């Protein structure tokens, strides 16, 4: 695998800062405090500011029109400054001092909860170095998953497959945030955590991998030909048609609610139960969160150029999932092992 990918980019970071300044101006505020993995990872170009994969960042970032600074504890700051952080001012506090105690608050200070939708919009449109990192992540995660699937044997257990995949991802610097494996007897489950059960002749493998703060999502299938090809092959064609309905509706300016209505209507059009979409989430915007946000019937977020998405249509025994980005030329699939031939966002503008 090729681990070469762009690091922190000063031009990108200036544009991110400008987006936050516009948000502050629109809200009549002077400061915003970033605490979540999605917001901090985005602003710091994917710096690894976590210890536990399941926990919040171990730092906070404070941004104002003319400044940005970071708070870290004394037991973490040396590694962060030596290996992770871009050029940003750091305030250090003792490890036993809660970071919240030194953060600004009150009038004129925005917390993430105050502007959740605006922050999602600020990070939605990928910048050039971000997209390059995302493409690299998509290629390497897909290569790891597909190489594993090509080597599978019906006798392997789900847990052995998950362990193998986790090792391949970690070796590429990718955090395995979600690993799901369903053998032949468990394909009815939409989120199949691995068990000691054996794969059998058909299996589903799902991976959500994070690197540089960005997260790709993909699903792949193993089939050794030992089970009847039908109705599986036909059902997969039909569920892919549902995915195409979602992708065709994912155009700049469309709301997530409208896309969900279009995509969910495709289930009945393809001969599935009209309520099939209610039995599992359908995916949504992607980027610095697994879904940023997940598409809901009331979602008001709108698609932006150069925004990433991961739709997730499923029906009994079938599921498709890839991560894509919406470009001026249409949909670019990031979860592919092929090098991209698509354009890159302009460095001009917001």
UniProtKB/TrEMBL annotation:
Pfam families: Peptidase_M24
Sequence ranges assigned to domain Peptidase M24 in this UniProt record: 134-327
UniProt key word Ion transport: no
Gene Ontology MF, one: aminopeptidase activity
InterPro entries attached to this UniProt entry: Creatinase/aminopeptidase-like, Pept_M24, Peptidase_M24B
Keyword Hydrolase (UniProt): yes
Domain of life the protein comes from: Bacteria
Keywords, ordered alphabetically: Aminopeptidase, Hydrolase, Protease
Protein name: Xaa-Pro aminopeptidase
């Amino acid at each position: 695998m090729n681990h070469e990918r762009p690091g922190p980019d000063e031009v990108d970071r200036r544009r991110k800062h400008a987006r936050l300044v516009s948000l502050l101006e629109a809200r009549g505020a002077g400061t915003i405090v970033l605490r979540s993995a999605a917001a901090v990872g985005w602003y710091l170009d994917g710096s690894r500011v976590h210890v536990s994969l399941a926990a919040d960042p171990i730092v906070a970032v404070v941004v104002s029109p003319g400044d940005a600074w970071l708070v870290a504890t004394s037991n973490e700051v040396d590694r962060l400054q030596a290996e992770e952080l871009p050029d940003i001012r750091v305030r250090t506090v003792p490890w036993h001092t809660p970071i919240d105690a030194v953060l600004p608050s009150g009038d004129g200070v925005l917390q993430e909860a105050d502007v959740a939708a605006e922050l999602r919009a600020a990070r939605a449109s990928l910048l050039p170095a971000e997209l390059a990192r995302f493409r690299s992540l998509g290629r390497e995660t897909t290569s790891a998953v597909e190489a594993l699937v090509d080597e599978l044997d019906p006798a392997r257990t789900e847990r052995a497959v998950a362990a193998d995949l986790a090792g391949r991802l970690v070796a590429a610097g990718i955090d395995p945030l979600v690993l799901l494996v369903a053998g032949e007897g468990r394909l009815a489950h939409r989120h199949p955590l691995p068990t000691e059960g054996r794969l059998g002749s058909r299996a589903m493998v799902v991976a959500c991998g994070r690197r540089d703060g960005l997260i790709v999502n993909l699903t792949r299938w193993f089939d050794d030909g030992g089970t009847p090809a039908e109705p599986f092959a036909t059902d997969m064609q039909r569920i892919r048609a549902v995915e195409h309905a979602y992708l065709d509706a994912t155009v700049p300016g469309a709301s997530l609610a409208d896309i969900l209505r279009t995509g969910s209507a495709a289930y009945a059009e393809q001969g599935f139960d009209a309520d099939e979409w209610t039995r599992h989430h359908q995916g949504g915007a992607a980027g610095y969160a697994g879904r940023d946000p997940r598409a809901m019937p009331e979602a008001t977020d709108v698609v932006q150029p150069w925004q990433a998405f991961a739709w997730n249509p499923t029906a009994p025994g079938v599921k498709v999932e890839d991560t894509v980005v919406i470009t001026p030329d249409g949909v670019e699939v990031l979860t592919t092992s092929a090098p991209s031939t698509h354009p890159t966002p302009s460095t001009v503008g917001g």
